[in-house]
Amino acid sequence: MQRITKANLFDSAKNVKIILFFIAFAVFSLITVFRRVDVLLYPQFWAEDGFIWYSDAYAASNSLQPFLVPVQRYLQTLNRVGAYVSMFFDIKYAPLIFNIIAITVQILPAMFFTSERFEQVVSKYYQRFLLGIVYLTLPGAFETHANLTNGQWRLALLMFLIVIASTSKKIWWRIVDCVVLLLAGLSGPLVFFVFPLALFQSYLKSFKTSISHLIVLAGAFLLQAYSFIFIVNPGAMRSTATLGAGVSTFIKILAGKVFMTGTFGVRTYDVVMNWHMWQSGMPPVIIATLGICLMGYAFWRGTLELKLLISLSIVIFASMLVTPQVSNVQPQWTVMLGADAGNRYFLFPVLAWVIALIWLFVKAQNKFLKNTAGVLLVCMVLVGIPKDFFIMPYENYHFQKQAIEFKKLSPGQKYTFIINPSGWRMTLIRK
Quick check: pTM over 0.85? Predict the structure, then answer.
């Protein structure tokens, strides 16, 4: 009979962790792909994926030059990296490369939930695993699902999770942290919100353990600030359409796009928003009031990590209201009311709402709040997630057929690809 030693126990525990890692990765990957199977069956570019990122990389004489060009006044490094990698493959595989990178980025926060780094926030593995599933099945998250253009939102979540998680003493974890934080910080404006929160958390806990994180985030913050203030790209400016702001519209956006969508799904909200009762304004006021009270209590009584998540979501929501990018002509807030408009802006608020409900159900002492949160979570599990699980596939414009036609052209000839969404085009000059 084999003698049990500390070394054997250590090896067994290590093997279990490896097995759990691959199980989690397989489950999370299947969930992500099954929500929209066309990402692998007939991959295609989405909007800026082709119109800007691939086009710029293909046309550039210097591979590094596109990385220095801001879009919407921000550096977009993740998307540039995806385009750069795709240059090593035939053009017909480029959308697939984009999608694989986007799927990987989307899964990473869920994998981080299950890692030992997150034990300090959520102690039990099965709870962290379920948290990863909730994140990947979140209602109303279709706009950020498996496309590289909106992958910055998923990467920003990973940046935030690294900030609030325990700091590892292992050198390879520290290197990974710094690489991810730098990439996320240079992939959109969300570093402007995460860096101050990181400073605040370090002030409350320890600057010593998080100094490397702060240095990297500070560098990304300064580079993005320089890009925003001093570098102007006339071909990719933000919309100048009016906001169309109003109290009633604000309440409907908050109630509908955060609390209603986060609980019952975007498809349910799409139906409810057309009801006369909803348009009259009273149901949105009631839902918004209830939602604010529940999140306010969770913020008041919750952990530091929950407070930081809610704070980040509030800042993102507020900034979205000030500078949205959902229409070039119509009033922005009015367009935002639509079920399909600007859903990327609500990834963090909806996630914060759901996490707040989970915390209330598990930790709240007040029975009314606990029971209310429980009922809303049941509604999310039975209605919101099932109704929103399968995401509408992109229109199949047969990209590979277009790529074959493009490759038949002589050097110098121009070809215009039809890409998603409807009305978008990608024009390349054959090399």
Answer: yes
Give yes or no: residues 296 and 404 share one domain: no
- Structural domain including 340 reads 246-386
Residues 378 and 430 in one domain: no
Within a domain: 199: no
pLDDT at 263 over 80: yes
Clarify whether residues 251 and 312 are in a common domain: yes
The tens digit of pLDDT for each residue in 132-151 reads 999 999 999 999 999 999 99
Kindly state whether residues 382 and 414 are assigned to the same domain.
Answer: no
CA distance 139 to 7: 45
If you count them, how many residues does the chain have? 431
Please check whether residues 409 and 264 belong to one and the same domain: no
Which among 208-217, 229-238, 409-418 has the top mean pLDDT?
A: 409-418
* pLDDT of the residue at 1: 44
- Residues 268-310 have pLDDT tens digits of 999 999 999 998 889 999 999 999 999 999 999 999 999 999 9
E-strand ranges in 287-357 read none
Residues 281, 337 contacting (CB under 8 angstroms): no
DSSP string, 261-302: HHHH-HHHHHHHTTSHHHHHSHHHHHHHHHHHHHHHHHHHHS
Contacts of 200 (CB under 8 A, 6+ apart): 308
* CA–CA gap between residue 294 and residue 277 (Å, rounded): 23
Q: Are residues 379 and 424 in the same domain?
A: no
Q: With both helix axes pointing from N to C terminus, report the angle between 304-322 and 282-301 in degrees, rounded to the nearest 10.
A: 140
Residue 355 lies in a domain: yes
Does residue 30 sit in the same domain as residue 166?
yes
- The C-alpha R_g of the chain, in whole angstroms, comes to 22
Is residue 36 domain-shared with residue 152, that is, in the same domain? yes
206 Cβ contact partners less than 8 Å away, ≥ 6 residues apart: none
What total number of domains does the chain contain? 2
